[in-house]
Amino acid sequence: MQWRNSNSTYGLVSILLHWLVALAVFGLFGLGLWMVGLDYYSGWYRRAPELHKGIGILLFAIMLGRLLWRLISPPPPAPASHGAATRLASKLGHAFLYLALFGVMISGYLISTAEGRGIAVFGLFEVPATLTGLPEQADLAGVIHQYLAWALVIFAGLHALAALKHHFVDRDATLVRMFGR
Question: What's the whole-model pTM score?
Answer without folding.
Answer: 0.93
